[in-house]
Recover the amino acids of this structure.
């Protein structure tokens, strides 16, 4: 194994927030011409590491060496000037500005000191073309683009800064499979041009496909760095969580299909949902598959009463219902719960306490008339924290102090407190560490054992295969196929997701 | 299952050729707010002119332009902080303060006047800069910081002008509040304004020309600079702007300074127009509040990120035209505030109708 | 599944919680004002009227009107909205109360406030007009209605005896009734904010309305109720103020909006909503009232008062109201 000279090295870096050590005495280096994957559970310190490299936060101790010379980055622009560009998990785009404005934001082409909008547009078009996104008009506003397109704009923006070290933090989590493919190609091309690339992902198959080297972090420490292929997938997971794990997914019970609890007929909305028909019963986990943006999110939102002008019928326990708001949906005859797409802006109120967040959806159950019952509230919160094994210091701390996985558990706890019958999950494991993912899978199974019915949308096919009793694959606002039992395979899901004509070997579905 | 590399079959259908028309319609939609305000203004103003007993005369136009100018500038001043999702409650106070300064300084020899004008402009910009410092370095919410500084500016204005009064240079006052011909005549330019090439433009009121100059020479360069772009970026998403390495503090300081500058220019004109200075607290408050209304009517979002000072100028023109209409329809003066309030409510509530078209209720919240 | 271990618990020593800081500092500043004022009177008159209980009670009585307005306004500010219609809601309530007269005077005044609040709430919640603009428009409408109603003159009607009793009288010659009314309003607001689902919902909406909505909170209704409360509080303050000055007059509410906002903000409530305690608002009101009275004792002219007023707000906020530095 030939060791190239390190391009950027961190030595003895430590960082703590309050009493929490985010990074402890970390040595880390990355080289030119390689894709270096950084692995670890949420809260392992990866994000802090990236933020230090990108100048967003400053380390308490230690030093950074760039191409042999010590450097400090007091702010992101200093890091940018040094050629270190980061694509963060949270999008860093300005929604009201146009795509072109965003891409050339920090150093727009200028003429006579003023921004040259024509050159700016041309430049954006070129960058977008480089990642195969000719379909994005540089003049459209970012807020008018779907999430997956915005992520591509984000990537184009990073490319436009001419990076020497490109850091991608879960950059593909919002992308469609086709875009992921383009991003891969782009990354390989950049690698060939001797760039250094750091890649953070929770998706094992992505790392296997991309990385040359992997580094594992755990509890703020750099555990091990090894070349690709030196470790098996199970070993890597073991390094990440510090113990061996047995089967990722809980076993699926084999039993006949239960009677329908929720029946959806001909559900349509705008041009996004085109006549959905679906049934699900108590004790079932029904997956929603397909490419991103085929109406899965809209289906969940429509059931939860968020969308206006929904046509078709939804029957709950044999009774037609049409929830007009989340309030109606959660308090109907069969109670619904929705774990929304974006936990930071939709699932949680980050600045409020953990206890307040857990009680948020069940305020009416925890009160007499209009007055809260403090005793019952505290009890409910304690029970939820225990049931979900949420790791907290104090329930009165703001929920923003928790790691991503624990935050998502708070979202789940909030809804479990309402004792829901139908649970709608919108990609609940996105950006969450392996350990917490497994807990969530087990929890889902346990809930169905207790009689709940779960509709589960995930962008991760492995999850759908591992968790679901049935998978309904959506394409263009319709359910193109329902897979059941052994027919739930990646091949089948992908084939249906692309709406490719039935192939003989899968015809038994 | 090692990879999700897929045949790009599903992708091709999404790609569509780029057309010029598409870009045009995008721009059209992105400026819908300003265009709406402009249409509203034209309808109201046409209505006013048609129903005016004396019809369209230059005199009426000049009078209207004079009444619009100060509010237009104060509204433009308000726009800049609003674009950053802030509010500047001190624009009225800065206008008043600079007006009071002007009532002391704008007199005497041409040199003194020029110096006085420079001092007024500097004072306005300095007030704005002070606001910016409190917001940037004090890290206090703009709305509350400017509430406090407005009290300070009003206090200084009261010290300068405990009672209304003062005087300004009469020729200058006459020149900037008349049409172009009179302006030229006052300063012996272009054959006393009788030059033949001037005649097609001679009827244009000077305040309108000043407005156009301010927009062309100050506003347009500003939004096309990196600082101006950063102002929009901050309003859109401040943390994203920081992540993108934009000069946030500089942009905030510049934005408030520009607001102060605009408000100061408004105050300077008001002093010239009324030939006096008046530290009138209710009047300052009214200008501030009307400026917010004008900004909203002009299509600028109070949430920041979208809009333009040009829109706010049109918004101010709409507001003023409403009161022009009251005047000629002889609405009992007592009823005027009621109608003004109702018109404002109706105008902004119309925007609420677009909620009915929102099919995804989440889009209501930002 | 035993991955508990190293979750560190932040030590909580004697450090002030962020929510307590404004209250403590504002209270400290109140003491400072009293000290400075007393020093001044001792030097110029050789007496210390500021420290006499009856003087303080008198100040609190005058402060109750501002206090009631601020209590209602705080509820709206916690939502991340603002109610600029306070001045003419207050005036309209006062004018209507004196116009109706008799036993229905007070209910009529409060009902006017409630009505304006409900219209504000409808506009802000259901039409989603920015509250800054909608309440501004309502203020103009109420002003227009009142000007049309009175012909632009001070109304000739007088406050009823009950109104005067509530505003002026003292129980046992010591405790002003107005102070008790303020106290009752305060208790009600504290109860609403801390003990009810409504209070929880208000804080939730102020922090992130989208998440509150998706948690099944009827956010529109909560906003409507909050504005109604603010309107009713302004109405009550108007009724009392009319009782205090025995009549209603044009522009009687103008002096209450900005001080009320200042009191709420000095008390540590975030002007963008979601954060703040009522105790802070209470202290903020006392601070503003005492500051005003000390300045008038010191015979500072209007100009100086404005300047001092502005400097106080800024310096208080510089101490504890600073926002977080923007970063990741």
């Amino acid at each position: 194994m030939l060791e190239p000279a390190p391009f950027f090295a961190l030595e003895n870096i430590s960082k703590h927030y309050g009493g929490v050590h985010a990074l402890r005495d970390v040595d880390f280096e990355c080289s030119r011409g390689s894709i270096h994957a950084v692995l670890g559970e949420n809260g392992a310190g990866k994000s802090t590491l990236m933020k230090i490299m990108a100048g967003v936060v400053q380390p308490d101790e230690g030093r950074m060496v760039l191409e042999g010379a010590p450097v400090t980055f007091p702010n992101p622009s200093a890091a940018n000037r040094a050629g270190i560009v980061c694509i963060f998990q949270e999008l860093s785009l300005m929604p009201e500005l146009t795509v072109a404005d965003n891409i050339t934001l920090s150093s727009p082409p200028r003429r006579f000191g003023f921004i040259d909008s024509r050159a700016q547009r041309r430049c954006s078009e070129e960058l977008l073309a480089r990642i195969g996104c000719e379909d994005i008009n540089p003049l459209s506003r970012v807020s008018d683009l779907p999430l997956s397109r915005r992520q591509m704009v984000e990537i184009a923006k990073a490319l436009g800064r001419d990076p020497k070290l490109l850091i991608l933090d879960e950059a593909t989590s919002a992308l469609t499979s086709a875009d992921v493919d383009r991003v891969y190609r782009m990354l390989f091309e950049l690698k060939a041009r001797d760039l250094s690339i750091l890649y953070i992902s929770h998706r094992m198959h992505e790392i296997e496909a991309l990385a040359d080297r992997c580094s594992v972090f755990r509890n703020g420490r750099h555990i091990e760095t090894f070349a690709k292929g030196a470790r098996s997938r199970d070993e890597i997971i073991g390094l990440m969580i510090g113990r061996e794990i047995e089967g990722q997914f809980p076993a699926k019970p084999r039993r006949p299909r239960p009677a329908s609890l929720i029946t959806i007929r001909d559900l349509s909305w705008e041009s996004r949902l085109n006549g959905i028909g679906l049934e699900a019963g108590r004790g079932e986990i029904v997956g929603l598959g397909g490419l991103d943006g085929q109406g899965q999110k809209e289906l969940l939102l429509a059931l939860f009463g968020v969308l206006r002008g929904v046509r078709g019928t939804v029957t709950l326990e044999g009774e037609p219902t049409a929830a007009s708001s989340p309030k109606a949906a959660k308090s109907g005859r069969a109670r619904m719960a929705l774990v929304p797409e974006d936990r930071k802006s939709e699932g949680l109120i980050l600045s409020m306490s953990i206890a307040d967040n857990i009680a948020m959806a069940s305020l009416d159950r925890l009160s007499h008339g209009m007055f809260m019952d403090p005793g019952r509230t505290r009890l409910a919160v304690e029970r939820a924290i225990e049931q979900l094994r949420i790791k907290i210091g104090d329930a009165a701390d703001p929920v923003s102090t928790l790691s991503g996985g624990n935050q998502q558990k708070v979202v789940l706890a909030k809804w479990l407190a309402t004792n829901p019958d139908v649970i709608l999950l919108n990609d609940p494991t996105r950006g969450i560490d392996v350990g917490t993912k497994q807990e969530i899978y087990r929890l889902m199974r346990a809930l169905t054992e207790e009689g709940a019915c779960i509709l589960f949308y995930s962008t991760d096919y492995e999850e759908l295969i591992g968790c679901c009793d049935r998978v309904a694959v959506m394409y263009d606002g319709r359910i193109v196929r329902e897979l059941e039992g052994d027919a739930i395979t990646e091949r089948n899901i992908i084939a249906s997701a692309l709406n490719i004509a039935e192939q003989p070997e899968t015809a038994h579905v | 299952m090692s990879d999700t590399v897929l045949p790009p079959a599903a992708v091709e259908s999404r790609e569509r050729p780029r057309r010029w028309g598409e870009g045009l319609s995008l721009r059209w939609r992105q400026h819908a707010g300003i265009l709406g305000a402009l249409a509203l203004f034209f309808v109201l103003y046409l209505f006013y002119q048609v129903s005016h007993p004396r019809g369209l005369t230059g005199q009426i136009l000049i009078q209207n332009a004079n009444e619009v100018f100060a509010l237009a500038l104060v509204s433009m001043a308000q726009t800049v902080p609003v674009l950053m999702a802030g509010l500047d409650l001190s624009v009225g106070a800065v206008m008043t303060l600079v007006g009071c300064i002007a009532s002391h300084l704008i007199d005497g020899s041409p040199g003194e006047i020029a110096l006085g004008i420079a001092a007024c402009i500097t004072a306005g910009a300095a007030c704005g800069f002070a606001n910016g410092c409190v917001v940037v370095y004090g890290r206090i919410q703009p709305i509350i910081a400017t509430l406090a500084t407005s009290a300070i500016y009003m206090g200084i204005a009261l010290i300068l002008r405990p009672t209304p009064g003062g005087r300004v240079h009469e020729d200058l006052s006459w020149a900037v509040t008349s049409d172009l011909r009179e302006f030229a005549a006052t300063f012996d330019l272009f054959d006393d304004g009788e030059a033949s090439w001037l005649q097609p433009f001679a009827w244009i009121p000077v305040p309108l020309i000043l407005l156009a100059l301010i927009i062309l020479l100050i506003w347009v360069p500003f939004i096309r600079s990196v600082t101006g772009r950063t102002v929009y970026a901050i309003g859109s998403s401040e943390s994203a702007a920081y992540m993108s390495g934009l000069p946030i503090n500089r942009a905030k300081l510049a934005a408030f300074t520009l607001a102060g500058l605009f408000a100061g220019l408004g105050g300077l004109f008001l002093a010239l127009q009324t030939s006096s200075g008046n530290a009138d607290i209710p009047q300052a408050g009214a200008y501030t509040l009307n400026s917010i209304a004008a900004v909203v009517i002009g299509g600028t979002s109070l949430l920041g990120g979208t809009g333009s000072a040009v829109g706010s100028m049109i918004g101010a023109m709409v507001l003023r035209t409403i009161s022009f209409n009251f005047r000629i329809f002889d609405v009992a003066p007592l009823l005027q505030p009621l109608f003004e309030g109702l018109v404002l409510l109706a105008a902004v509530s119309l925007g609420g109708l677009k909620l009915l078209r929102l099919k995804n209720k989440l889009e209501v919240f930002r | 599944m035993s991955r508990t271990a190293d979750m560190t618990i932040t030590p909580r020593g004697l450090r002030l919680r962020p929510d307590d800081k404004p209250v403590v500092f504002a209270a400290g500043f109140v003491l400072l004002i009293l000290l400075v004022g007393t020093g001044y009177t001792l030097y110029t008159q050789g007496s210390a009227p500021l420290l006499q209980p009856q003087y303080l009670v008198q100040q609190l009585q005058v402060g109750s009107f501002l206090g009631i307005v601020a209590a209602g306004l705080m509820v709206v500010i916690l939502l991340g909205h603002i109610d600029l219609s306070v001045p003419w809601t207050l005036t309209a309530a006062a004018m209507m109360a004196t116009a109706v007269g008799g036993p229905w005077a007070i209910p009529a005044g409060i009902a006017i406030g409630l009505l304006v609040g409900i219209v504000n709430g409808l506009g802000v919640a259901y039409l989603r007009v920015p509250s800054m603009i909608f309440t501004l428009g309502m203020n103009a409408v109420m002003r227009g209605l009142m000007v049309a109603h009175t012909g632009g003159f001070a109304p000739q009607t007088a406050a009823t005896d009950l109104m005067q009793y509530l505003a002026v009288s003292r129980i046992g010659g010591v405790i002003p009734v107005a102070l008790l009314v303020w106290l009752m309003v305060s208790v009600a607001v504290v109860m609403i904010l801390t003990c009810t689902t409504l209070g929880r919902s208000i804080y939730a909406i102020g922090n992130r309305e989208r998440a509150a909505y998706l948690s099944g909170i009827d956010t529109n209704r909560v906003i409507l109720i909050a504005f109604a409360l603010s309107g009713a509080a302004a109405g009550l303050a108007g009724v009392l103020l009319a009782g205090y000055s025995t009549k209603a007059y044009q522009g009687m509410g103008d002096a209450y909006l900005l001080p009320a906002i200042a009191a709420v903000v000095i008390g540590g409530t975030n002007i963008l909503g979601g954060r703040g305690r009522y105790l802070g608002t209470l202290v903020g009101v006392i601070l503003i009232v005492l500051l005003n009275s000390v300045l008038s004792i010191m015979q500072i002219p209007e100009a100086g008062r404005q300047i001092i007023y502005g400097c106080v707000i800024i310096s208080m906020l510089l101490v504890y109201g600073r926002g977080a530095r923007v970063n990741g």
Confidence is low (pLDDT under 50) at residues 1-19 of chain B.
